[in-house]
Write a structure and sequence with these properties.
Layout lengths: L1 E6 L8 H7 L2 E6 L2 H10 L6 E5 L3 E2 L1 H8 L6 E4 L2 E4 L4 H13 L12 H11 L14 E2 L4 H12 L3 H8 L7 H20 L4 H20 L3 H28 L4 H28 L5 H24 L9 H9 L3 H10 L3 H14 L2 H29 L6 H11 L3 H7 L10 H18 L6 H16 L12 H20 L4 H24 L7 H6 L2 H15 L2 H28 L17
Parallel strand pairs: 1-2, 1-3
Antiparallel strand pairs: 3-6, 4-7, 5-6
Helix pairs in contact: 2-4, 4-5, 8-10, 9-10, 9-11, 10-15, 11-12, 11-22, 12-16, 12-17, 12-21, 12-22, 15-16, 17-21, 18-20, 19-20, 19-21, 20-24, 21-22, 21-24, 22-25
């Protein structure tokens, strides 16, 4: 339960009290500022508190977005201010300051009290979210004529239409915007009216995608058609959960994590389903499935690394960025550019259609080609931006890149050498080390000891790449280079083993490690820091895992190598999942935000 304190005498005929109760507030009335302080002190410390001017006139949804949004510690609209327990002390001080400065609690101090409190909270340095209400009305009229005009303005706006429209992301892909959102918003409303939560819809989307993967695994044409249809329906539900969260403001830290991680789980499970279905028809496409997962994960790492490197950079401008902004001012170029990057909507639609009408091999080949072209486009643009901007990157950005690098104890030992005179920049060192291990693994036979030598070189270069803070213009490429090296090494060695089960085991290992890397990204984006050092050490760090897999390939028979990969995958998955689930279930207690992936189309 939350508490709303109405300041001033209620206006006859005003629906304000009922509106606040419909939003879950226990309404109390204070005749003056002094009584407001008394009522505030009586509210339990763990409750959200709102102070609302009794003369307020506006839409219920304006009050909803201004007073109940769980993403913000403090928020306000004209005539109303609301704080979560985390900002309660600031509200108490602001109320006392405002009261003291307006006659020590006299009856006249109640005028515009909510607005004065919001300003006082901001003056203390607390961020106060002021939502863009658009056509929604939120005002405090000063006389009967103004009140009548405000009520007419409220009646002139279709509040439900506004609520449905704002439930949809302002920026999304072409397929999602024009083929999904026009009707998924109504599904979101249907869910809201039946008490369903976004997390329940997210879980339904995951289950639907897993059933789709199971249909694809049957290897029959009917199964492939059903898989394509179910995958599209899973995506509809995937859009619906976010729209439901925005429609009803049911944001949560756990929900944000589920939405982000389930997207990857659904897509990669579907790749596995395609591989199993192809195998039933006598076609082995596990290498393609694993390649698609590697490529898609590395694309995301490029996005995350670039964004983190420039998250708080100063002088963060470039001619390339200016050109991009100019292109975004022309309608058709916006959609072309969004489609080129093959966001999740376009990508899943393509996968679904190709699954239904072609074969798993064709589906995966086209997917890899499309993702490769998209990766080249986005990476080239980011490299150009980095080379043409004069940005100064912060210690926070350098630490984020170091955390994304995922170096373990072996590489950290070499990084501690801190060689200031290294002849190559960090991305070049990372690229050389990765190229060495991948090329040696690819061009030697299974069991070659040279793979171990290359892995040792990779361990050394992984450390040297992080010997200095990652503040160079292209240092954001270091984590993607590491991801490519680690995942590709596992893929190539499994292919070279040429034994049944090696590639599925490699798929499982890369999936477990990729989950750890995504989890690292979401923790950093959520402001809670990277996973604990003990976890990184326990699973070896990226260079340690490469060395372990290389040693297994050199020392074990091909069938034993499959067993080793499987055991390694299970061990990594157990450690990572247990710690990750523990963290995110309790993350709200550490101040993790309710949304950290909003607006990201891929």
């Amino acid at each position: 339960m939350s508490t709303a304190i109405l300041t001033g005498q209620p206006v006859p005929g005003s629906p304000l009290e009922g509106d606040l109760r419909s939003l879950g507030f226990d309404v109390r009335i204070a005749s003056d500022a002094a009584e407001t302080e008394t009522l505030l002190a009586a509210v339990p410390a763990g409750q959200r508190v709102a102070v609302v001017d009794a003369r307020f006139v506006g839409h219920v949804h304006a009050l909803r977005v201004g007073l109940t949004d769980p993403r913000f510690d403090a928020s306000a609209v004209p005539g109303a201010v609301s704080v979560k327990p985390e900002a309660r002390a600031g509200l108490t001080r602001a109320l006392h300051t405002t009261t003291s400065g307006n006659g020590g609690g006299s009856a006249t101090a109640v005028e515009a009290l909510a607005d004065h409190i919001a300003e006082a909270i901001e003056a203390e340095g607390q961020d106060v979210h002021r939502p863009d209400l658009g056509t929604l009305v939120a005002t405090v009229p000063g006389d009967p004529q103004a009140r009548n005009e405000a009520r007419q303005a409220v009646a002139a706006v279709d509040e439900e239409a506004v609520r449905l429209r704002t439930a949809v992301k302002s920026r999304d892909g072409f397929f999602t915007t024009y083929c999904i959102s026009p009707y998924s918003r109504y599904i979101a409303r249907w869910c809201a009216r039946r008490g369903l939560t976004p997390n329940q819809v997210t879980t339904a989307s995951l289950l639907t995608a897993l059933i789709a993967a199971g249909c694809a695994a049957t290897g029959t044409r009917g199964g492939f058609i059903a898989a394509g249809l179910l995958l599209l329906f899973s995506f509809v539900l995937d859009c619906t959960d976010g729209q439901l969260a925005r429609y009803s403001l049911q944001y949560s830290t756990l929900g944000a994590w589920l939405d982000a991680t389930f997207d990857r789980a659904k897509e990669y499970a579907y790749y596995a389903g395609l591989a199993l279905g192809a195998a039933r028809g006598g076609d082995d496409v596990w290498a393609l499935a694993l390649g698609a997962m590697v490529l898609q994960t590395c694309r995301h790492v490029v996005d995350f690394s670039f964004n983190e490197a420039n998250h708080d950079a100063t002088a963060n401008t470039s001619p390339t960025a200016a050109l991009s902004d100019k292109l975004d001012s022309v309608g058709w170029t916006v959609w072309v550019r969004r489609m080129i990057v093959l966001p999740i909507g376009e990508r899943w639609a393509m996968i679904a259609v190709l699954t239904a009408v072609t074969t798993p091999r064709i589906t995966l080949v086209v997917l890899i080609i499309g993702c490769a072209l998209a990766a080249c486009y986005t990476t080239a643009g980011r490299v150009l931006r980095s080379l043409t901007r004069k940005a100064t990157r912060t210690d926070r950005a350098a630490q984020a890149l170091a955390d994304l690098a995922d170096n373990g104890p072996l590489a950290s030992a070499f990084a501690a050498l801190k060689k200031p005179g290294l002849p190559l920049p960090a991305p070049a060192i990372a690229f050389v080390g990765g190229a060495v291990i991948v090329c040696v693994a690819a061009f030697t036979s299974y069991g070659s000891p040279w793979v171990v030598v290359a892995a040792v070189i990779y361990v050394i270069t992984s450390g040297l790449a992080l010997a200095r803070p990652l503040k160079g213009p292209l240092d954001w490429l270091v984590p993607p280079f590491f991801r490519v090296a680690e995942y590709s090494t596992v893929l190539v060695l499994a292919v070279n083993a040429d034994v049944n089960g090696a590639l599925p085991a490699a798929f499982g290992l890369v999936a477990a490690v990729a989950y750890h890397h995504y989890d690292t990204v979401y923790r950093i984006k959520g402001g809670t820091g990277a996973p604990p050092h003990w976890l990184v050490r326990a699973i070896g760090g990226q260079e340690g895992r490469v060395l372990v897999v290389a040693l297994a390939a050199a020392l074990l028979h091909d069938t034993d190598f499959t067993v080793a990969l499987t055991a390694f995958a299970v061990a990594v998955a157990l450690v990572v999942l247990v710690e990750s689930i523990r963290f995110w279930v309790t993350a709200h207690k550490r101040g993790a935000p309710a949304v950290h992936d909003e607006g990201e189309p891929a």
